[in-house]
């Protein structure tokens, strides 16, 4: 499977500020996703990052709050804008696997965000 | 919309024992995939096992196997000869099949599994 890295691994931010999270893959992948895991909760999809076009957002998530870029097949960013304490979560990117398992998603190590 | 239910918030077993984690799901789809992921304290989500709905044979990966009952919409995970390193949160996940490729994963609430020495 692909090697996925995320930066930063963790951060503490003040409310009202924005943070951009990077997701880098060591090989070209067809699809990339961004998930949120609130404290003690399961994972919820924020959006599908589409290469060369706007991301596709899930219900309850909007582009103004979570702008996403995907300039190429190995890189994507998620920005958490105008943060509030409710944004404190782990943010994970996932990518679809290689030729053998086209439907399987593999996850990055996550970014732990605390908003004060 | 699909839903995934894990009815066991926490489980605890002794090392070397066998443990089964339960998962049920609700869907009107006929073609889909089911997954088990583990999330140890490091927070990394790790794929444990996958199952295609069109396959009747249950998937196995070393000490991990599933009992897939499509009619009952049940997808349990059995861990044999449990090890201390199996301690983690385990998430069951559903993904419907689409021709254009992978879709979003719908996760259950998770089961916290502790393996005691």
Architecture overview:
The complex is a heterodimer of chains A (116) and B (117). Chain A has no helices and 11 strands. By secondary structure, chain A is an all-beta fold. In chain A, strands 2, 4, 5, 6, 9, 10 and 11 form a 7-stranded mixed sheet that branches. In chain A, strands 1-3-8-7 form a 4-stranded antiparallel sheet, with no helix packed on it. The model of chain B has no long low-confidence stretch (mean pLDDT 94). The A-B interface holds A 1, 30-31, 33, 35, 41-45, 48, 58, 90, 92, 94, 96, 101-107, 109-110, 112 and B 33, 35, 37, 42-47, 50, 91, 95, 97, 101-102, 104-105, 107-110.
Brief synopsis:
The complex is a heterodimer of chains A (116) and B (117). With 116 residues, chain A is mostly beta strands. In chain A, 0% of the residues lie in helices and 49% in strands.
Itemize the secondary structure elements and their pairings.
The complex is a heterodimer of chains A (116) and B (117).
Chain A: E1 4-7, E2 10-13, E3 19-25, E4 32-37, E5 43-49, E6 56-57, E7 68-72, E8 75-80, E9 89-96, E10 105-107, E11 111-115
Chain B: E1 3-5, E2 10-14, E3 19-21, E4 24-26, E5 32-39, E6 46-52, E7 60-61, E8 64-69, E9 74-79, E10 88-96, E11 106-107, E12 111-116
Parallel strand pairs in B: 2-12
Antiparallel strand pairs in B: 1-4, 3-9, 5-6, 5-10, 7-8, 8-9, 10-11, 10-12
Q: What attributes does this structure have?
A:
heterodimer; A: 116 residues; mainly beta; seven-stranded mixed β-sheet; B: 117 residues
Spatial shape of chain A: globular
- Percent range for helical residues of chain A? under 10%
> Helix proportion of residues of chain B, in percent?
under 10%
Profile the largest sheet of chain A: 7 strands, mixed
| Residue runs with pLDDT of under 50 for 5 or more positions of chain B | none
* Overall morphology of chain B: globular
Rg from alpha-carbon coordinates of chain B: 14 Å
Taking the alpha carbons of the first and last residues of chain A, their distance comes to: 36 Å
Radius of gyration of chain A: 13 Å
Low-confidence stretches of chain A: none
Total beta-strand segments of chain B: 12
Number of strands of chain A: 11
Structural class of chain B: mainly beta
